[in-house]
């Protein structure tokens, strides 16, 4: 089995990769010497495909399994759903020796992780991501949380998983649109963290679209390695980890302006990256051919590259609501050529919103 380690001292953990490894989850958890009871948090969509193999594997390894079903969807990433998880943990008698398995996409992972971080002041958890976005991004790095009615991901803590189990076979059931949306975060790593990876993605875009197993596994693995390196350097986003927000300033504005319902997160990130690429060129950090390559790769992966037609002031208001905006300025992530980044505080709205109609 292929694996890599996220090195964070006593919070270090392994990410294990392999087609079909879901059925060995129980023995992997045993190796970690995790305790007797486990709550498997999942939703009805994922449950119908993957709960049974996960349950059977954990039971065969001697764990007492408590499935916890939460509703599917970003609009359920809330305090109310969190209470349902706590209820099930309390009713199931899970104690400080117990652990949680997050089986699903980023919504399940963020919420189950937050429940693990807070239940009994913190119990271990294992990430079993089943969307591409979760496999390359949200399951690694320990950001957990829920939404608040006044904004996305406003409530949360850092709580690193004890293990991440990535089985790309689970992506076989993932709808095309969700798959492509996850691909936007894959492109992000190439654009700001690794030029050779960007070249690889460009060369293999057709096979990625066709979900070629080897190429896809390689792209997932490299994405995780690049993210792990960033997290190891700056676990709590004191500075460097902000590079992972490439494309996200405009993405969050697009999501907010469209009521979080029109575009998937990765689609908004793709638009935001195309915008960031154009601004990086305008700032003198990238050449026109870099911009063309970034936008070209996104387009070849069937991702959108133009912002929706809101006015400059609407974008400005939406960005001002972003939790990452401080003192009227935005820590904007520019691509420095391809494969590197520059994070710079920008308070010149005229520059950020250039070419957007007033
Ligand atoms: P999601 O969890 O809503 O999953 C998307 C859809 O796919 C859901 O309907 C889900 O039920 C379904 N699904 C999941 N696995 C499936 C499978 N194998 N087959 C068929 N359907 C499947 O969305 P997402 O894109 O995975 O995650 C988005 C969330 O992740 C957001 O809440 C975002 O804030 C969060 N996020 C967190 C981090 C982090 O670092 N913690 C990073 C990026 C995003
Ligand atoms: N998804 C951004 C981060 O984990 O920091």
Layout of helices and strands:
Blueprint (H helix, E strand, L loop, with lengths): L1 E5 L6 E5 L7 H7 L5 E6 L1 H17 L3 E6 L9 H13 L7 E6 L1 H13 L6 E5 L2 H7 L4 E6 L2 E8 L4 E4 L9 H18 L1 H9 L1 H5 L3 H21 L14 H10 L7 H18 L5 H13 L11 H9 L4 E2 L2 E7 L5 E6 L2 H4 L6
Parallel strand pairs: 2-9, 3-4, 3-5, 5-6, 6-9
Antiparallel strand pairs: 1-2, 7-8, 10-11, 11-12
Helix pairs in contact: 1-2, 3-4, 5-6, 5-9, 6-7, 6-9, 6-11, 10-11, 10-13, 11-12
The chain binds nicotinamide-adenine-dinucleotide and glycine.
What are the main properties of this structure?
358 residues; alpha/beta; Rossmann fold; Dehydroquinate synthase-like, alpha domain; 2 domains; three-stranded antiparallel β-sheet; 14 helices; 46% helix; 18% strand; binds nicotinamide-adenine-dinucleotide; binds glycine
Structural features, described:
It is a single chain. This protein is α/β, with parallel strands linked by helices and 358 residues long. It has 2 domains: 2-172, 3-Layer(aba) Sandwich (Rossmann fold); 176-352, Dehydroquinate synthase-like - alpha domain (Dehydroquinate synthase-like, alpha domain, Up-down Bundle). It contains 14 helices and 12 strands. The strands form 3 sheets. The chain has a 7-stranded mixed sheet with strand order 1-2-9-6-5-3-4. A 3-stranded antiparallel sheet has the order 10-11-12. A hairpin with a 6-residue loop joins strand 1 and strand 2 (13-17). The longest helix has 21 residues, at 213-233. It is globular. The relative contact order is 0.11. The model has no long low-confidence stretch (mean pLDDT 96). Residues 137, 141, 143, 241, 244 line the site of glycine (GLY).
